Amino acid sequence: MTDALPLISLDQESYFQSPANFFAQFRESQPVTPVRMLDGRRAWIITRYADARAALTDRRLANDVRRWPGGSRSWPSEDAGGVHAHLLHNDPPVHSRMRRLVQKALMPRNVARLRTRTEEIAADLLDQMSAVPSDVIDLLPAFASQLPLTVLGELLGIPPEGRGMILAALAAYDDPGEANRVTRELAALFTDLLAAKRAVPADDVLSVLASVRDDGEGDAGEGLTSAEILSLAFQLVMAGFDTTVNLIASGTLALLTNPEELAKLRKTPALIPAAVEELLRFVNPVSHSSDRFTLEDLPIGDVVIPAGEWVFIAISSGNRDPDRFPEPDLLDLGREATGHIAFGYGIHYCIGAPLARMEGEVALSALLDRFPNLALAVPPDQLRWRRNSLMHGLAALPVRLR
User: Fold this and answer.
1) Integer Cα distance of 238 and 233 in angstroms
2) Which helix (H) or strand (E) holds 281?
3) pLDDT(214) > 70
4) Which of 254, 261, 262, 250 is nearest to 286 (CA)?
5) Where along the chain do its domains lie?
6) pTM (2 d.p.)
7) Any idea which architecture 2-400 has in CATH?
8) What is the largest CA-CA distance in the chain?
9) d(CA 241, CA 152)
10) Rounded CA separation 343/349 (Å)
11) Pair 212, 101: CB distance under 8 Å
């Protein structure tokens, strides 16, 4: 059956507008299907929840291209700033060592200490929005982007001017022709920041990373190489910023277009944590997993994915699988949604999940409390989504505040 499957291009407007709906058409008839990625690569997409969750822990799927069947490969980012040596490009034992050294700073109890500061940042941003004379504002640059950027900047120890550079760089990242330039600029920024932290350490994550350098030991050491430190700093920003922006913006849109659920949340603010879980499942800030490849032939149902093939897990499709979530296309804030795979599963489960959850809870709670008459300023069908395969995010979100 494998050879008979057609190759489906992801470079389609229907995919960018709704990855979940795009993959739903294959989930029953072609649950494991070959696709053409935006960069031209052939890959395989896994669309059913049970298959997706199993694949996320399958050791026959690897992340480190040095283990590619038939010979080692390299990542394009090795030539574009050298930010390739992060968690998503490594397997155990290297991955285990790196994650152990990084996750302490992002443990739930440490994130809990940030909540008060995050609430202060949210209140300040909402004050600025309230002061705008117009009733209509784009929520993305005014709030959804600024909140995670500021929180992440303070957590990592990135000064305001550096945060501005990050925001400007990421604005161009969706353009494939700009990706290498953006990567090099961010690599240069973090190289300078890490050097400054080594010289004058502070109470922030970049200082912690800079302090565990161990270039002499590499894989066997208990520290991090310079390349790993730089790559982890890059990954923390790339993964920790965009995903949370999409959760806040897309989550707000989902609530505004489901007024009964919005009214339920306004009436019972204690539902906020459960609402964030359901919104993560429903809006899917990340469309599919990061790159993996098969170390050997991998049978899934009636399909055998050959060794040496790229594989992506369609998180957005798994979270809308009716076999796992009844009536999956309905937003239901009373649903038990904690089994979702929005943060992945297994050893690559998102290390920043506690931070994203906390920011989502604070952002939505503060926004809805400050603006009781918040509404969309344009019809939903006029909204457009970014042309990005990995991230599912709005290009703009015009809202009416009063």
Assistant:
1) 9
2) helix 272-283
3) no
4) 250
5) 2-400
6) 0.94
7) Orthogonal Bundle (1.10)
8) 63
9) 7
10) 6
11) yes
